[in-house]
Amino acid sequence: MQAHHPKIIGLGSPLLDMQAEVSEELLAKYGFTTNNTYFATEQHYPLYEELLTLPNFSYVPGGSALNTIRLSRWMLQGEQGDVKFIGSVGKDKFAEMLTEVTQKDSVIPLFDNVDQPTGKCAVLLHNKDRSLVPLIGAAAFLTREYVEKHLDDIKNANVFFSEVYFLYALADLTKFVYQVAYENGVKTCLTLSSVNAVTDLFEPIKSILPYVDFLFGNEEECHKFGQNLGFNGTLEEVLPLIAGTEKKGPRERVVVCTQGKHPTILATKDSIKKIEIVLVDPAKIVDTNSAGDSFCGGFISRLAQGEDLEQAVKDGNYSAAQTIQHEGSTIPKYKPYENN
After folding, report:
1. Distances in Å between the alpha carbon of 102 and those of 41, 122, 308, 320?
2. pLDDT digit string, tens, across residues 106-157
3. What is the pTM of this model?
4. Mean pLDDT for the chain?
5. Burial class (CB in 10 A: 0-12, 13-18, 19+), 302
6. What are the residue numbers of the active site?
């Protein structure tokens, strides 16, 4: 039987997002205060076990790229096997939980099991404030040997998507996958992830950029990346310069820049196009943390079906608009556009 190759394939750090309402005593026990991020060390490992015992505990797949891939699957609908994700997890119960909920979102997890704790992020809620405790763990130990087992899926996909965050641990492997995708005519996409990542990982990003067809970021990320490249000026002056940097292959690069409630910008080396967004009633907004990931998901779902970039932006903004009306990166229970 012929393998079902995906329309969309992602690469990144799969994390289990673990959320619970916690007491002030639990925060103090681990030395946490609200509205902060603490990168987990071994002393924090018991926290994840403790969360499992709390009455209001819930969990969903997480990690920026996996969030995008999950939302792309929801927007695409389609067949089983249309959307896949490559990453690595541990050999523990958290890996089983992450695999289960990823499959529940109709994404095929191509997860390697390594001898490290599964990546996760504790989302600690207290009086409407939150603290985050991420542990990258196994997600940083994906091997080229495992990726090579899935090269056919990469070569035959319509769209390949990854995140700058993944370059922290696996820049060389990520570049290899972009080269494979480029050589096989796959539409390649990269999200800039965060302002700090754009600076921390400037050289690895620059190394991968020639193979990137679609570069995503918000206005701060794009402006900072342009500055790092030596481009000064307004955002609208900088974006075409980013698009015009060295590019391999016949496709010209498109920079896709979101600006919150302001128009999304599509930039090539020779053009700027602004696309208005449909605003969400502020009273309905619950959580904007996954808006950028969700936008990318909607955009690439349309990209997998053709090259209507204006509609791709509209789909991206629709996807983000749905996500921000829920807590975390939750997949809506209705089908796309059914709620209009």
Report:
1. 26, 17, 28, 19
2. 999 999 999 999 999 999 998 878 888 999 999 999 999 999 999 999 999 9
3. 0.93
4. 92
5. buried
6. 293
pLDDT tens by residue, 153-173: 999 999 999 999 999 999 999
**Residue 200 · residue 173 · CB < 8 Å:** no
Q: Tell me the sheet residues that pair with 258.
A: 218
- The mean pLDDT values, 10 residues at a time, for the chain of 340 residues are 77 95 93 89 93 93 94 89 96 97 95 97 87 94 98 96 94 97 97 90 96 96 96 96 95 95 95 91 77 93 91 93 79 80
Count other C-beta atoms under 10 Å from residue 190's C-beta: 26
CB 278 within 8 A of CB 321: yes
Question: Do 276 and 259 meet the contact criterion of CB atoms below 8 Å apart?
Answer: no
What would the DSSP string read from start to end of 72-88?
Answer: HHHHH---TTSEEEEEE
Q: Convert the pLDDT of each residue in 291-324 to its tens digit.
A: 889 999 999 999 999 879 999 999 999 998 888 7
The DSSP code for 284 is: G
What's the per-residue H, E or C state across 218-258? EHHHHHHHHHHCCCCCCHHHHHHHHHCCCCCCCCCCEEEEE
- Residues 6 or more apart whose CB falls under 8 angstroms from that of 233 comprise 241
Following CA atoms 280, 284, 287, 288 in sequence, which dihedral angle do they give, to the nearest 10 degrees?
10
Rounded distance between C-alpha atoms, residue 301 and residue 159, angstroms: 9
Q: Find the largest Cα–Cα distance for the chain.
A: 58
Give dist(CA 92, CA 114) in Å, integer.
10
Distance between CA atoms of 240 and 188, rounded to whole angstroms? 18
What are the tokens at 115? 């001898």
d(CA 64, CA 191): 9
Alpha-carbon distance of 225 to 235, in angstroms, equals 11
Distance CA 173, CA 225 (A): 22
